[in-house]
Design goal:
This protein is mostly helical. The protein contains 10 helices and 5 strands; from the N terminus they run ααββαβαααααβααβ. Bound molecules: protoporphyrin IX containing FE.
Length: 335
């Protein structure tokens, strides 16, 4: 009995001493070496996934961006993948819908007095070269740029993965190089036409009469460019500058932080769709929507009756300036 009791006592004592040692050992180890004490906590990682947050450490190599563990990007991704396609679709389909309604209500805008046998030089070779340089480069950029936002949804199912990959890499190449032609076009557009696009009291009257676009036989006076055309001009110049600056940052991003690149991508995409919508309206009026308008950028000579109806003050100025020498008899009517 006594020996049994002393055996239990010895076992109990051993268990107590062993227990005390095993409890104190980790505490002792933590105090001296803890390899994970400085590491990122899981809660911090989750925090950094929130919009606008980032997680960065320090690196000793020149590329400081390599220290970024989690980039701020969720806001931008949501804008780029959800909001921007909505803005693009609403702007483009919206303007097309408006033009269809306008065509159904107003029809093609005709020369009210009918075509004349006389023509007047509206845009010389330099004007037309600058216009088509800007216009064609913009159209190429609009198509190849829209591919970034809509291509995967619309074209990939039609072209298949290989076909879409080939088209998308071709489109990217075109976009990167044609951008420079557009920048030159915008700069030249500004230089050659800015003097004729300064706002004036004549424009206020033109807008008050809605440009005469809504009713037949109504033609508010205008100089070389009317109020609506001045809106197109300044949108192309200001929009073109914004597109050029943001596009340049996207082409050459090496010295940038990720937030700046995201800012420029957002600006680039948004301005692009707004400009595209406006230019669709411009193309309609400059081609099928108005009798005699295209000649201005085609041959450069427009029907005299067209010019008198849409740019009466300009025709007067031209006739006074050149004493009628720029107005020539023409075998063919304007259209
Ligand atoms: C196929 C496409 C296009 C056609 C048929 C077209 C047609 C025209 C025509 C006929 C004019 C002269 C209007 C007049 O005599 O008063 C004009 C002017 C002009 N175009 Fe275009 N254009 C096209 C594309 C573009 C594009 C893509 C841009 C710029 C991104 C552009 C920018 C301008 C500007 C700034 C003017 C002077 C202001 C104005 O008349 O609105 N055009 N265009």
């Amino acid at each position: 009995m006594t020996s049994m009791l002393s055996k239990w006592l010895r076992t109990g004592l051993f268990a107590l001493v062993f227990g005390l040692f095993s409890l104190s050992a980790p505490a002792f180890a933590q105090g001296s070496v803890n390899p994970t004490a400085q590491s990122v906590k899981e809660t911090q990682l989750f925090q950094a996934l929130k919009p606008g947050e980032a997680l960065a450490g320090r690196v000793s190599i020149p590329n400081k961006a390599a220290g970024n563990l989690i980039q701020p990007g969720r806001d931008w991704r949501a804008y780029n993948q959800e909001t921007l396609p909505k803005i693009g679709a609403i702007a483009i389909l919206g303007v097309i819908a408006l033009l269809v309604v306008f065509y159904l209500v107003r029809g093609k805008i005709r020369i009210d007095a009918g075509p004349s046998t006389m023509k007047i030089l509206r845009f010389g070779a330099i004007d037309r070269f600058v216009h088509w340089l800007t216009a064609l480069s913009f159209l190429m950029l609009a198509i190849t740029g829209a591919n970034v936002t809509f291509g995967k949804k619309i074209l990939a199912p039609i072209l298949g993965p290989e076909g879409f990959a080939a088209w998308a890499s071709f489109a990217k190449l075109i976009h990167n190089y044609v951008g420079f032609a557009f920048m030159v076009g915008v700069a030249l557009t500004f230089i050659i036409w800015v003097k004729d696009n300064m706002p004036s009291a004549v424009d206020a009257k033109w807008f008050a009469a809605a440009g005469g676009l809504l009713s037949k036989g109504s033609h508010p006076p205008a100089r070389r460019f009317n109020g609506g055309q001045k809106i197109v001009f300044w949108s192309v110049v200001i929009g073109g500058v914004l597109m050029s600056i943001s596009g340049w940052h996207l082409l050459f991003p090496t010295a940038e932080g990720i937030s700046e690149a995201q800012f420029h991508a957002t600006l680039h995409g948004t301005v692009a769709f707004l400009m595209t919508a406006l230019i669709i309206g411009h193309i309609y009026i400059g081609s099928v929507g108005m009798e005699g308008a295209f000649d201005a950028m085609g041959s450069g000579e427009v029907d005299l009756n067209w010019a008198k109806e849409h740019h009466s003050l300009w025709v007067k100025e031209e006739q006074e300036r050149k004493s009628g020498s720029r107005i020539s008899g023409a075998a063919q009517p304007a259209e």
